Amino acid sequence: MENLLRPLIVVGGSVVLTLVIGWATDLLLRKADARHHETPLWGLLRRGRIPYQLVLCAALLRGSYDEAKLLERHSAGIGRTLTLVLIGAAAWLVIRIAAAIVETSYSRYARAHRDPARVRRVRTQVTLIMRVVAAVVGVVAAATMLLTFPAFRAAGASLLASAGILGIVAGVAAQSTLSNMFAGLQIAFGDMVRIGDTVVVDGEWGTVEEITLTFLTVRTWDERRITMPVSYFTSKPFENWSRGTPQMTGIVFWHVDHAAPVDAMRDKLRDLLRESPAWDGRAFGLDVTDTTPNTMEVRALMTAKDADDIWTVRVTVREGMIRWLAAEHPYALPRVNTADAALPPNRTNGRPSRDDISRDGVAASRGHGPPRAGG
Q: Taking the complete model, does pTM exceed 0.70, yes or no?
């Protein structure tokens, strides 16, 4: 009976104690979250309840397993397994706690500062910092797990002795990866591009959706995702429409007939912009910028607070102006001219006038001009 009760008490007691402590801790965090609405720290810490319970259970079982007298022939393997679980759960818990602290600091900063550009910059830095912390904690946890095996401990000295050679080899082999990692850090702290910025890369317009240490994702206007190495943004030029202030000036062109009412078009542009909520009211204008033998080019300028609104204003003005010209001034639309060319003032209906005949006769009598036919 003792052989049956002892492992049951040890294992069952460890599990029950883990559940009780985990429930009590979660209850305290919920009460703290309800009491302090101004900070999300306590609610974010609750995300770590699963690794927290794993750490408790693994620690309790690792400390009391020898007293259970269960599977004594495999005690070494079970003990090492519990140690590995404990190390992995502890690393998971550290990452969750660090993420809660960093996200709380970011949320406080976002509430205190109203500048969207600065908030996006801090958000980009926070995201990359969390990735670095997770990578460092993961590497340390993996190294600690490996050191629990005696064979790896024995090989530690030789590994450290050859660390210089291995570092050179790894640096040459991972040159591209390392360059991308340093480029990611440069982007994070150099304020070149941030999450949420509107950029134009290789002719594609989109919004920066994700930045990691090695790649960057741009979500295009048609919901495609373009993934590019971060080193691209440190070695090649690109357009960042959100750099500084997001305000933009848009341009719309029309090709209209030479008889188009430019002044009326200017008034209509003002009316269209006043009806558009996307126009920020800063400036507008309409001018004739070029002419061709059949048409003239009219350019309209308008402003908006960001790239999305300037697109809306442009398409609204372009469509509204064409509809107005077609309804009110159809003659202003470009057309192919098939009429006869206008004659000079001294010609009528394509026949020479009397003055032309007399001048032609005088020129012929003097030996100038074309010879006359007949006799």
A: no
